[in-house]
Amino acid sequence: MARGAGGRRVQVSSCKSEEPPGPPPLPRHLPRPAVSTPSPLRFQLSASMFALICLAAQYVNLYHTVWWLPLSQQHHAVNYQLICRPTAMFICAILCRRLPCALLARVKPREAGVVYLLPVLGIATFQICRSYGLLSLVFLLYPSLIYCGVFGFTWTPLMSPTGCSDDPPDHLSCLAAKPTDIRQEAANFRTDFNTRCAVHLGRWQRVEPRHAPHHLWSDHCFWPQNNLVKVRTKEYFRAEAVCNAAEPGNVSHLRLYALFSQPQQLTRVLMLLIILQISSQLWMLVTARYWQHSVVAVLLLLAGSSSLFRTVRQHLITKKLYMAERDLQENSQFK
């Protein structure tokens, strides 16, 4: 007898099998089409350009003039003399901090930080303190203190885009044939939004069985769909995916499968968010009453158009690829 939900006692069948069931059909993957991706240098140039465009838009909104009026004493669209040059240099150094590592591929993050970032920030900080006093150090140093508390005294998270190599790891692949390798791959590729190991990982659902035959779960085999297993904690789980290598009750495996089993859902949400952003920028451009607002809207539209193109392309490719793999998997089940 076992206690079910709500305090009820339900009778669990004693029909159990020590032998695991036969292996299910493993998911088959199609080769991903060759799509041109920007090089690290091109990506960092685009990111730096986008950051500088946003900074320029902020300065236009803050220091715009009425240069077109007949009695105006201004001959430029922006009051350049009001812009604090040390502050602008400090902001530009922070926004473009990863560009030197991309320009010089052999430069390490620590070398770039010591040779480029630290001297520029030091000179800019000294000039800001001369202009605004020592109180300005509080606003400049508290992000550094937070960074040191989170990452420690290392340059890699600050100067490197991801803190790891751009080359894919070669010790594991999404076609691993062992359940232990699948779980290890899921732990290593948690930050990959397009990982295919989630399809091999599968999903388990906790159930309250009634007179149902079950197996004792083993971590050395794949489990077919609708199989009932019992774990060491005396809980029962039913396999819901076609191929299941996940550990029953593991929250991280369940979360990874829910997010990455269908990556086209994530790309669809991202595409809709970018479309909503561009639509709001178009509305701001149409309803703008001041010239600086129109300039800012145009700059943001130009900066976001490339992101929309890449996201739509990625969504279409991912959708077609996973639909073809799903059809291939369904056809293999009926053979």
From TrEMBL:
Residues 1-31 are annotated as: Disordered. The keyword Transmembrane applies. The keyword Nucleus does not apply. The chain crosses the membrane at residues 41-60, 80-100, 112-128, 134-155, 266-284, 290-309. InterPro entries: Uncharacterised_TMEM39 (IPR019397). Pfam families: Tmp39. It is a multi-pass membrane protein. Coiled coil: none annotated. Keywords: Membrane, Transmembrane, Transmembrane helix. Belongs to the TMEM39 family. This is Transmembrane protein 39A. It comes from Varroa destructor.
